[in-house]
Amino acid sequence: LNNINKTRYKSVGRQARYKNQSFEFRRKFTPRVHKSFTCYQDVPNYFRKNRSFSVEKSRKYVPEPRRNNASFRGKGMAYTGKFPVSCGATGEFDNGKENKHKREVMQAWLERGSSEMKLGRFDAALECFKKVTREEPNNPESLYNKALCFMKKGQHKKAIPDLLSLTRDHPIINREVYVSLAMCFVATGDYTTAVRQISRGLLKFPKYVEGYITRGQLYNSQQKWDKAIQDFYKALSFNGSEGGAYMGLAESLVGMGDIRNAVKILEQAISCEKTCVQALMRRAHLLFDEKEYLKALRDLDCLLEVDDKHAEAYYYKALILLCQENLNDAMLCLEQVIKHDSFEKKFTGPALYNLGAIKIKQKDFYGAIYTFKRATDLEVGLKEQQVLKGYVEAILSLIKRKFKDAITLLTRIIKKKHPLLKEYIGNCYSYRGYAYAAIDNHEKAVKDLQHVTKTQELDNASTYNYLISQGVLLSHKDPQSALECFSKASELFPKNVEPFCYQAKVQVFLASEKNELKFAEKAKSNLDKAIEMRDSESELYFLRGLCLYYLERDSDAIEDFETAIDKAEDNMAYHFLCRGFCYARVKMFKEAIQDFTIVLQLDENYSDAYYYRGRCALLLDDTSLAFSDFKKLILAKPEEATVHIYAGNLLMATGSIEDACKAYKNANSYKQTVEAYIQQAKCYFLTNNVNEALEELKNAYEIEPTPELLFDIEVLSILLSSHNKEDLKKALVKSNSKLTKMLKSETEGLIFKMKHVHWYKGVFFFYLGQFQKAQAELKQAMDKKERLNLLKSSKADRRFEEDNAEVLYNLALCYLMTDYYEAASMHLYEIMGLVKGKVKGKVLLLLGLLHISLEQSEEAKELITEAYKYDNKLVSKYIEKKDEVKILPFHSDSSLVSEFPLIKVEIGNAHCVMIKPAFGLPKVLPPSMDFGKEKEILLHFKVKCKPEAPWLNRVKGAIQFTDEIQDIISEPITETENSEKNSETEESEVFTSAFDKRQYHSAVALQRGDSEHPRNTEPTTELFEEAMKKKESYQEEYLEEPDMSEEEIARRIDAMCTPFEDDDDDC
């Protein structure tokens, strides 16, 4: 504030004072100058720059102590109002009645003109005086009064001819004519002529005190200090108590730079009654400029005791109090200025300006803007006021949370760098940093707050904001440093919960990155602290619910989500979305569908809810709703490849492989993605289109060349090149060599794993007749731990169960080919619990044949009889000893397996059979629709930045707005209460439906029109309809009617299992 006043009222050099200082800021002080000297007030350019003339003359042209009326009254004519009879032109009126009547008429016009002048009607007065001059052109009274009227109207040039005529024709009639004539020339800017005219008057009237004072003031205006001093001393020689002379002499000394003696001279002026007030004001002004505030304040207090309505005195007293940082008393003085300066309003504008500046310093920005409005309404606003007003409007925009507008205004202030706001530039950066933090632009917030530290120390609020923004920026780059920033911020404002929330967010990030639950536990602990401090905050319960979800404590998470929903002012879609995720993970799919429906009700644009609701519907076997929701998802986002991938996954999960493949093609038509190509390759695996699968994998590799994809491509290429009918042995040896190199790879594929490489090598060794090597590779294809826990495997590991069953089957064949029938039987028994249907029948038949070879007829009879129940056709064919009895439990119809030959095997003395090792493409499971730790839910772990306002006055943790202290312990958000809630009893169960507590527009999600969507989305949407048509209910396998009776079959099995010494059966 001091800088503001220094800029506005900067003291200038002594010699340049009269050139640079405006007349409005100084009070002139010549009390006995002729009344016409006030014409200076009508000429603002040159003469108004004088500091040697009194402001008292601005109030009225004719000082009351000097003149009683506006008529020209000579010395000795004060009461008659008439000029002497001896005046030349009046002699002709002495004779006759006619002349007497004419003289009376003219006197009447003169008196009427004088009356009009007193009333301020100068035009009417001029008409009266002109009538007199028409009759008597040389009438001195009419000429002078007419000149005065012109001067009153500001038409000084028109007054000069009349006054010159008076000085020429009547040079000694009245000495005041010379002063008036000088004032007219001053008004026209001709100071030299003005001095010459007043000097002519002094030659005629050498003891004319006011003439000397006037000429001295003119010399002061011309900076002819020595001549001015001579005139003032001349006046004092005639009248030693003339206060005006002392005032003028003081001004001359000021002009010469002798402030000390000027102050002493003003002491003499103060002793004069007529100049006491002006002298006190002038001396206070000089002392103020010299920064002798206590002395100046004493003079101003003395002045106000004499005149308690003196606006200028109050104004300078306020400035002194401002310099002393006594803002409250300064404000009171400024209000007095505004009150007592209601007429001229000379000091009202500066007073309101300083009053507004004080409000800014006190951070009362609403008071400041109101003060500036007062100045605008009174039409006394200053240019400087607009500068401060812009600053205040910027801060009010922050208070009103119009952050973008505030940033624009503050940026404009910073760029202009106005001198008046030099003291506040640091605050501008601090406030703009606050605004950037509030809109989560933390990078710019940190930059601004760092800039503040270059010029000033950050206050606690700005330091807090800096730590928060810095922590947010470091959350992913350096989590530990971010946690330290948030911890320091919490120490600055221990009652704020946001630092705990930010710490929890960083810890959840660490938990997801490092897959360590201990970080999630720490996050929950921080949120527990936050809730203890502010248990009314809805978002705190929501964030803790997310932590509990990550910790797989779904029941507790649902409870927190319900609390968040209850405490929230409005229904928030993401609250219901996250609770729906929890319901889905604990298999409460109906409740999850209900929550996802609410999400669509609250936010029609959140189309991903269709995806989640569709998954729940599919898990409930409601394929109709699932297809409907996925169709809506595609219509909502027709050009997003992801939704077409989702559709393909759904079709794949429902067994519509061909339709799923088309959906993936549609996804790639919008945007080629690795996921779509890989999923399409899996579809081709399921349909045994190996070459097409290889092409899709290559397409994926072109987009993202990863080692995993390269591994899959190379293994699949080896398989395709391994079945050369012309030279199978050579092809197998070459393929085995390539597979051996693949085993040295550090990575596995997305589809093919190392176990598959060992598996394929084992099969190739089998065909090469190297059974021991085959056994070694096959054993590596199945982990020992998997083999031990094979029968305990969960449904989720079904793919591994089938793979292990096939590997065990191949091992059994290896032992069979080397006549280790007992070992072969053991491996076949291991897989009995993993197979069913005809596959089980084939395995049982093979086991029966092995038991026949081991001469275990009873066991063989039971096994073959049991096999007949599962595959009567194969068993009947074997009993009848038909040629080429094929026992192929696994992959019998695979295009890859079909290229490899069958092997005829004779098990003991039993009828020979055709076998083939089990192998093929990896088992491809459909995409899982189950809900686990959804990545989507952690994206909702958002902390809204609530920076601390740096403009607030804080006293011991509380905010001081005006004179009252308001506690800010919690700053709670007002909760909305349902009027019906009080009448309802709260249910204690965790999984109570939210519909009992909230009201919604509808229980069904809004439908979207199809007409707005492009045609190219229809192929994917039509696939759901085709899949519904193709969907068939599950049909059990029925055994074919046997050609023989049950008795005949039992007899033949018994005969087959009975050992014979001589069996000449040929294969």
TrEMBL record:
Pfam families for the chain: TPR_16, TPR_8
SUPFAM superfamilies for this protein: HCP-like, TPR-like
TPR repeats: 106-139, 209-242, 538-571, 607-640, 674-707
Coiled-coil portions: 510-571
Top-level taxonomic group: Eukaryota
Region (Disordered) location: 971-992
Keyword Hydrolase tagged: no
Name used for this protein in its record: Uncharacterized protein
